Amino acid sequence: MNRYTGQTVLVTGAGQGLGRAMAHRFAAEGAHVLIGEINEDAGAELATELTGKHGVLAQSRALDVTRSAEVDDWIRQIHAEHGSIDVLVNNAGIIRDNRVEDITDEDWRVVLDVSLGGSFHCARAVFPGMKERGYGRIVSFSSMSWRGNFGQANYVAAKAGIVGLTRTLALEGARHGITANAIAPGLIETPMLASMNGSARDKLTAKIPMRHTGRPADIAEAAAFLASKAAGYLTGVVLDVDGGLSIGSSIR
Ligand SMILES: NC(=O)c1ccc[n+]([C@@H]2O[C@H](COP(=O)([O-])OP(=O)(O)OC[C@H]3O[C@@H](n4cnc5c(N)ncnc54)[C@H](O)[C@@H]3O)[C@@H](O)[C@H]2O)c1
Questions:
Q1: How many structural domains does the chain have?
Q2: Ligand 1 contact, 243 CB (< 6 A)
Q3: Is residue 247 part of a domain?
Q4: pLDDT tens digits, one per residue of 134-167
């Protein structure tokens, strides 16, 4: 499929994990991929890889999504150099897990700032251009955890916030051809998952109805659908991509 030929797709935090897989997927379908990544080397390496492998235009910029002035400048530069923006993928996110009484001010703040603040900064910056053009797709990253998860009060608050942000962007964008949706991944094999406590991970994996963790490609598949022209009547949705884990408990 070549659904993204000629389109400009922005992916934040694409240096590794899900963002990297999505960048490859969009590039494989012909998109120009613009990466905003705090890890400058990882972003630059990915851009070279995308151009080499898929023959598309790919650029990376050192970007901290928590800094709104940096985000605004990035979007201004993209408009000047590439024209319009078709897709924004708000992927950058971090975890700093702890029980509620042990979450420091800094760990509360930074987790919300990166995931929720970063998604807001990027959405706010692309919105006027998308509105003017009457077209845009925003895909943001929530998590299966948004419903509540032990030891993750900061992350859960950020990921539930993404749901509210997404639903509001959907309302405000609807009459302008802009859709906004969220993906709520379950357990996907990425460096973020590798950093999770081993026994917690094993216990959770055993609860997945499909009995195995997901692959970054599973998420890339969902993102490539949600961000496509064909998904134009679908907005404000939180798409669970989790092997059935969020369905609820099963006695078997
Ligand atoms: N992996 C999973 O199982 C899983 C499950 C649910 C939700 N998610 C969500 O999916 C998204 C991607 O997860 P992942 O597993 O690929 O994570 P990851 O840790 O592997 O990658 C995150 C990327 O974001 C970048 N980043 C961090 N802070 C940044 C900042 N301030 N500005 C710009 N870039 C920044 C990092 O450098 C890194 O490249 C996150 O929002 C995460 O919360 C992941």
A1: 1
A2: no
A3: no
A4: 999 999 999 999 999 999 999 999 999 999 999 9
